[in-house]
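Researcher: Next sequence.
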Amino acid sequence: MADLPEHSLSLVRSGGDATSTDANAEPLSELAAISLRPRNRRRFLAEASALATFLAACTRSKTVSQKSDTTNAPAVPAHSNLNPDSRTDTALRHAMPASSSTAAITGGGNVGLHRFDPVLPPVSSARTTQLHFTAKETPLRVREDTVVAAWTFEGDIPGPIVHVRQGDTVEFTLTNAGSIPHSMDFHAAQLNPKVAFRSVLPGQSLTFSYKPRYSGAFLYHCGTAPVLMHIGSGMFGALVVDPPTPLRRAKEFVLVQNEFYLGPPQNGVAPFDYNKMLATLPDLFAFNGRPAQYLAAPIRVKRGDLVRFYVVNAGPTHPCAFHVVGEQFDTVYLGAPPASAIHGVQTFDVPAGGGMIFELQADVPGEFVFVNHAFGHGQKGAIGVLVVEE
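Model: Next structure:
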């Protein structure tokens, strides 16, 4: 470029007009630089040859880039066949669909809508709890007008509520009755995920045991890759661990928030859509798998009751800003109770993958809405009513 006139050199350097001298401005491309040079026949032929070489290089680069993208980026959803909790999953290569529709899920016209009971079941007197869950794909009605192609533990969203004591032994078996690999990740466990949380192939079972070290409200979920798809399609639930010294007697309820990302119905069944999950804009939210179910069928307590909510957020992505309209939480346990308590709380975020315990004294009769106070999410279904009766 030594033979360029000074005004052309200034243009190439500055990316502006002939009067620009800004040394920090963006340089023009090679193609733009060529077009600004003074013209004569010899230079025209030389630059035409340079332009052809430049364009050919661009074409080769684009072709190589496209080929590389096709080779290295599997079709969505990307399926590494590894649990993200485990760098070496024992599951063999198995095609993962981009939606929850599988051959095992057919029309859902006769699937009934049922209310999910939020009451915490009593803890067993035995110090060993034996759990046997079956993973299966099934149509599930979550609203009067909506049947989803659910991937489930025990045929429901969420899976069963589990209640144990800190230090108890949990003996767990997962049997895979589905058509794709599934697994189990207990957030209350401290185990080698390479061994315990590995994927189970269709028709096979896996057993492991653990002792919860901490008390609190914990999530469990399928950990098979892509985890987003498996949690987003319904494979999650709550495990409540009591502290060694029980908390005060209360009316206890479990609320598991989740998000629904739905595709167009197929034979009356809406599949969960992986690409929508990646976009993180849910169609619906819910407590315990059915949007707004506790508006039509509220949770009821008596005046004077201590009310305890175990709020677990399955996500898979958004937090839950838990709030009760017209009330305050006397106590919120951020971690293992009772040491992690804070008091006089109006609203508190439960992160995706987390769980917290909320307590209030029902000393005023009336109807109190409990809601995800991120109201765009509350209005999509993360809402219910607590009725305090005289």
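Model: Residues 317 and 352 are 6 Å apart (CA to CA). The first helix runs from residue 6 to 14.
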